[in-house]
Amino acid sequence: MKLLIKNGRVIDPANNLDDVRDILIENSRISRVAKTINNGADKTIDAVGKIVMPGLVDMHVHLRQPGREDKETIASGTRAALKGGVTTLLAMPNTNPAIDSVENIRLLQDIVGKTAVANVVICAAITEGRLGKVLALIAKFRKESVAAISDDGSSVDSSAVFYKALRKARENKILVICHCEDKALSAAGVMNLGPVSTRLGLKGISSESEYKRVQRDIQLAEKAKASVHICHVSTAESVEIIAKAKKKGIKVTCETAPHYFSLTEEALLDYDTNKKINPPLRSRADMEAVKEGLARGIIDAIASDHAPHTISDKDIEFDRAEFGVTGLETELAAAITYLVLPGVLNWVELIKKLSWNPAKILGIDKGTLTPGRDADLIIVDPEKSWLVRKEDFISRSKNSAFIGANLKGVVEATILSGKIVYKQEIKG
Amino acid sequence: MKEKAKLLDQETMNRSLVRIAHEIVEKNKGIQDVCIVGIRTRGVHLAVRLAAFIKNIENKDVPVGILDITLYRDDLTMISSQPIVHKTEIDFDMEGKNVILVDDVLYSGRTIRAAMDALIDLGRPKSIQLAVLIDRGHRELPIRPDYVGKNIPTALHETVEVHLSEVEGVDEVVLVEKDG
Amino acid sequence: MAEFAWNKKDLLGLEYLTKEEIELILNTADSFKEVTTREIKKVPALRGKTVVNLFYEPSTRTRVSFELAAKRLSADVINIAAETSSVKKGETLIDTGKNIEALKADIIVMRHNYSGAAMMLARHLNISVVNAGDGWHEHPTQALLDMFTLKEKLGKLEGIKVSIVGDIAHSRVARSNIWGLTKLGAKVTVCAPKMLIPPGIEEMGASVTCDIEDALRDADAVNVLRMQFERDQNSAFPQQMEYFMKYGITEERLAKAKKNLIVMHPGPINRGIEMSSEVADCPQSVILEQVTNGIAVRMAVLFLVSQAREGKDEAAN
Question: How many pairs of residues across B and C have Cβ atoms under 8 Å apart?
Answer without folding.
Answer: 48
